[in-house]
Amino acid sequence: MNTLRIYEKAANAESLVLELTQTERPRAAEGQCVIEVRSAGVNMSDAKAALGAMPHAVWPRTPGRDYAGVVVDGPAELIGKEVWGSGGELGIRRDGTHARYLTVATEAVRVKPSTVSMLEAGAIGVPFITAHEGFRRAGMPKAGEVVLVMGGNGKVGQAAIQLATLAGARVFAVERHAEPYIGHASGEVDVIAADSTDIAAYVREKTGGHGADIVFNTVGSPYFEAANKALAIGGRQIFIATIEKQVPFDIFAFYRGQHTYVGIDSLALDSLACARILDQMTPAFANRSLRPFPVDPATVYSLKDAVTGYRAVLGGSRERVVLQPDREA
Question: Is-above-0.85 flag for pTM?
Fold first, then answer.
C-alpha cells in the first residue's frame, strides 16, 4: 500500500520531504477496524508537525488527522461502511491518515452521513471538532446571544459561525480587511474590517452597549485586547491558537467583567473523543443545516504530490487541502 512517511523535521516548507513508501495492508486485531482512506484533509497542525513544531510528535511517522473511507477489515457489520473521523493522536503520537489504509479502534469508528460526500467528509474533522469543543467548554451559544468570531473566514472560524448561527445567535466576524463572509451560515453574519474599524466599539454600538457573550478567537494575540474590550459582562473568550505567547493582561478588567477564558488544544482529543463530538453534529450534517466545506479540485492531491498540498497549507491557503490516496498523480 502507499503510505506517506516523515523521517525528520524540515527547516521550512521548501525543504519539506514526504516519502512515499510501500507497505502491506494491515490486518484488524480484536477491537480494531482497517479503513481504506478515500480522502484526508491536510490541517495546519499536520504541516507544522512536519516542521517539528509539535514537540510530542513521534518520528518517523505517517502524518494526518482527518479521514473518510471505507471499512475493509473488522467487525462484519461494519465491512463496506463509509466512515469518517479524526484524532489528536493520529499523525502525532501514532501513524495517521495520509496513507492508503488506517487502523483505528472500532469504538471510534463512525458512519458518515450520506448527505456528505467522501471527499467533503475527509475535510470536516479538525475545524468543526475544534469549533464544537470550544463552544462546549465555554457554553454552547444560545438564541439571542452575541457571538464574535475573530478570523471568521478561516476554517475553524467558518465552523464556529455555522454552529453559532444554527443555534440562533447573533454573529459578528472579524477579518483583517473588508471582505464578505465566504462560508455557509443559518443567519446573517456582520463582518468587521479590523484595519478600518474599532471592533469593540462597533460590536457594542450594534448591540446597544451589551457586547459579545462569546468571542471565538481563532487568531490569538493580535485580537486579544479588542476581544476583551468587546466582551459583555460574564462573557467568555475561546482561544485555539496565537502568534505571540505573551499578551498584556488587565486583571482588574477581567474580574470586574466576570470573564472566562477557555483554551482548546484539539491534539488532546483522541479518536474516540473526536468521534463523540462528531456524533453531536451528525444530525445537523444529515439534514444539511450544517454544511461541509466546498473542496476545490485544484487543492486535491495524490499522495505522490502531497508535499505540494502541505506547502499550500503552510503558505496560508484558504481552500481546504485534501489528499486522495487512490488518486492518480
Answer: yes
